[in-house]
Amino acid sequence: MNCIKIGILGLGNVGKGVWNIIEENKNKIDNYLGSNLEIKKILVRDIHKNRGIAIPQEKLTTNPLEIIQDPEIDIIIEVIGGIDTAFEYIKQAFENGKHVVTANKAVIATHGNKLRALAQRYGVELRYEASVGGGIPIINTLTQSLSANKIDELVGIINGTTNYILTQMSDFGMDFDDALKLAQEKGYAEADPTSDIEGEDVAFKLSILIAVAFGIHIEPHEIPREGITKISKKDIEYASQLGYKIKLFATAKKFDNNFEFHVHPTLVPSNHPLASVSNEFNALFIRGNAVGELMLYGKGAGSMPTGSAVMGDILEIGKIIGTNYKSTPLDVVSEKHLNIIGEGISQYYIHTEVIDEPGVLGKIASTFGKYGISLESVVQRGRGNSTVPLVFITHEIERKQLDKALEEIQNNNIINKVASILRVENL
Amino acid sequence: MNCIKIGILGLGNVGKGVWNIIEENKNKIDNYLGSNLEIKKILVRDIHKNRGIAIPQEKLTTNPLEIIQDPEIDIIIEVIGGIDTAFEYIKQAFENGKHVVTANKAVIATHGNKLRALAQRYGVELRYEASVGGGIPIINTLTQSLSANKIDELVGIINGTTNYILTQMSDFGMDFDDALKLAQEKGYAEADPTSDIEGEDVAFKLSILIAVAFGIHIEPHEIPREGITKISKKDIEYASQLGYKIKLFATAKKFDNNFEFHVHPTLVPSNHPLASVSNEFNALFIRGNAVGELMLYGKGAGSMPTGSAVMGDILEIGKIIGTNYKSTPLDVVSEKHLNIIGEGISQYYIHTEVIDEPGVLGKIASTFGKYGISLESVVQRGRGNSTVPLVFITHEIERKQLDKALEEIQNNNIINKVASILRVENL
Hints:
Structural class of chain A: alpha/beta
Helix content of chain A: 25-40%
CATH topology of the largest domain in chain A: Dihydrodipicolinate Reductase, domain 2
Number of strands of chain A: 17
Oligomer: homodimer
CATH architecture of the largest domain in chain A: 2-Layer Sandwich
Radius of gyration of chain A: 24 Å
Shape of chain A: elongated
Number of helices of chain A: 14
CATH superfamily of the largest domain in chain A: Dihydrodipicolinate Reductase, domain 2
Largest interface: A-B, 65 and 65 residues
Largest sheet of chain A: 11 strands, mixed
Strand content of chain A: 25-35%
CATH class of the largest domain in chain A: Alpha Beta
């Protein structure tokens, strides 16, 4: 039996998952490949650190070149994270004729185009299934199973931290702050949760999905985004009464000849499959012009699920080694003819606080009408206090129409406060 | 640009879907392949039949050999359905050096082992993503993305007809007969619905899934199965009150060193993602030893979704043509060491009708206790009639324990009637 050797850059959560999977499933993996798969070397910062995992010390090194320049190593797994160093290592790996598998969303979202071009130039493979949605086979589905489809729409719940927080708020009536604290205690949120709760992590992943599904390159910072920090317990309660759940959506879709993409907390009908994606789970809803509606659901993070995706990539590359098979580059799915319009139109949920007196609703509705905004539903909750919540759901409009109308309404002192504005997707 | 030529055996729903997808998405498909994909010939029964689709008449033939023996044709799509003729055609296609893609669950469930061996012998590819779950990438996920996992459990809703009927009964309080009639009117059920409603169709598909995920060959007729014809509106109502939905499940799982598999209407907790799979949609829940829980959801039938899966297979084979790449045969996932035990243990829902008098519940519970059956919940609905419904949910037991206990209870005239016994899966 011949041998396929891999090197791993980084021995955090994902690196350990890869090690454990190869230990546990070695028979199946080697049979699948028809080769003996061996981890030859792992890059770490400190060889002597106790990692709670039995790895022979001679497999560890602090010198990346011992892996990148080792002529025996066929595939390199990059799981150090971050952007600049990871980019350098991957580039050098390509130059040394190595295939690369990475779980690093930041480097693929930021430098994916460059790295894909480099991989092609050096005739090697670059795979990154684990960079979006952990163990869920999102990239493979989009690039292989659905290769004969044109993708019309993607809607994803692709951040476990925020989905865990929103689930706690929804199922147990928790405040955002308490739910965040709980998420941190459970290890679902980091000590500094900013990147997750402000939607930055989701924007990285959406940028990758847009490249893969539409062949369009959008920088993560170009994606309009909003996190979940302004969602209140009240919003979740009103949404529920109206038949919706609130989820942090990453959206990319074609609409006529336009292409829109954004990250927003969004109301989704309670009976839609995406509404039942709870806690730390992730899901991607896909609409293709042949397959119709498809949803992939699973664990979007964690050592073993993410390791599973890395290993799926490794085994696919393992099957290619020694053959003249070539993967299809991404630019074949290019939708470059589309107008890039960012946010697009949407239905909106608006939670306002108004003075409880006759005629208020009439004045608001008239002003909405003046700006071409029609309402799908209006709900007034509670009576008798000086201000009462008044909640609207509009039909599809542009956000700037809504902002203008609300400005006029606020200038006329009809509304005390606009507590929140959220998108509504009746998928 | 070189050319990949395909022949299609059969021009029903799926054949037309394939034709339409190639027409609509030709650019993307040809770019993906780096080749011009052409449908050279299609086998039909009647060349002159009006099919509502603009296919040049010279592409049609009534002679299968014009396709199977055409040296220009690289890949043959078998979508005539049925078992014997389809088997013959596929075999002859292999003998003529053709790769084969099929959407035919019956031939793969019945002769999959033989056909896979033949494909290997002739050095060609056999793909059948479309045979289970229509457009959902189930086979690819199990054989490629999850290739480094050992699969522990599969639970599928893989028949759209029965899921449509159960949804109508659940959401609109319909009787089975009315829901079946509606399904027939909408085209979701055939004039003779037996194969769907009795679970035969599901058994075919489960047999394929077992082969793919566990490397074990189980004939469809060896799979214990029960259809949905005995489910009453009442059962769905009681299940709902207990927090469950009833779905027709195809199950295969490892449990210690045992392997169980069966097709049964089953109560699943209302908040589980499988419970929100409604109407004609299909879903497969997968538990792998690395990836954890995964669910794939989408359209399990229909011309375009099934065509999408066929085309995914075609494009994968198209990429292999002219290379020395070889797919991995299925036997690497073999779990042949497991005890094949069929039904296994389960929690059960039992709906009985009893005489409304004191002491009845005590007698039943004592008899259950005698046979080692403990109860998770008991619900009595209604009072005052001569008989009242009494509904139990047991803890995990073997079915034969339950049958013995119920026999004794019925012999002692404590229960008037056992209206239904259903499995409960708290996944």
